[in-house]
Amino acid sequence: MRCRTRENVMLRQRTIRKAVHAIGIGVHSGRKVRMSLRPASENTGIVFSRSDLPGAGYVSAKAENVCDTTLATTIGAGRTRAATVEHLLSALWGLGIDNLIVELNSEEVPIMDGSAAPFIYLIQTVGIVEQAAPRQFIRIKREIKVAQGDATALLKPYGGFRANYTFVADHAVYNRYPKTATLDFSDVSYSEEVSRARSFGLASELEQAQAIDRCKGSSLDNAVGIDDHDVLNEGGLRYRDEFVKHKLLDVIGDLYLLGRPVLGEFVGYMSGHALNNELARTVIDSEDAWELVSFADTRRPRGREPILQPAAVAV
Ligand SMILES: [Zn+2]
What domains are defined for the chain? Predict the structure, then answer.
């Protein structure tokens, strides 16, 4: 069997080789935070802990633990909360990391440069190790759709992972760039094509966000800022379709709260963190709409066809 190597699809579970640390600020709190990523044993999943709250325990990166979706995704269990988890989770999906302990000494994951690229770089400096247990995927068997006003988000069957997103904004700057994108990860590299897309917003919206205690740490160092006429950042955009690609980066992080990577196609129209989370919760509640599959069978077929065709998922 000839297989193409993809960073986000592996047969076995993976974690990082050794601990690695980063210091940054929380984009919403404006507070300095130290984050440590530590290896975790197989079947742990992605879990967050707070070194500033001894004895508070872990919170798993699971859709059912999402407790706030105002401008970011926050998870919580008991006293342990972890905010703005979506960019880190997106990077972990991109690298195919299944098991990890994320330790924070404050509530919010550092925003770094507003994209997922610094997390990719951080993990690549220590390396990734394969574990013994097979990696499990959520294979979508029938369409699941949620809506909120005009916004919609759905997952439907597909033999790999493809994501399509469209946003609508009638604004001189947004009108100059693509508002829709489709990425099929059997031929697109997450690291190269998605991870560098930064958060973005209108400078005029920043004041409103700060009035509700959000975006207190936001600056052109961690977001693309837009005024009435132009992109304010020196150097402009990293991708011509950076805006819509960041929306896809967020979707990927929010969907990784399903606890396993999805095999299916996502289609989003104006969906944000709240609707992405509703979609994930609806998937969990719709047990007939998906099944857990593993690629271990493709290595050791026992007298029957593999559950999934290897070519379809670019193992
Ligand atoms: Zn984002």
Answer: 13-133 (3.30.230.20), 137-313 (3.30.1700.10)
| 243 Cα to the center of ligand 1, angstroms | 10
Nearest-CA neighbor of 167 among 158, 156, 155, 175? 175
Q: What is the DSSP letter of 157?
A: -
For the segment 71-85, the average pLDDT, to the nearest whole number, is: 96
Q: Which residues are catalytic?
A: 273
Q: In the predicted model, what is the mean pLDDT of residues 136-159? A: 97
* H helix intervals, 177-236: 190-193, 203-211
* pTM > 0.85: yes or no: yes
Number of neighbours of residue 294 by Cβ within 10 angstroms: 17
Band the pLDDT of 209: cuts 50, 70, 90: confident
Cβ-contact 184, 160 below 8 angstroms: yes
Q: ∠26-212-90 over CA atoms, to 5°?
A: 40
Helix (H, G, I), strand (E, B) or coil at 148: strand
Within 181-238, residue ranges assigned H as helices are 190-193, 203-211
Distance 134 CA to ligand 1 centre (A): 30
Ligand 1 centre distance from Cα of residue 86 (Å): 7
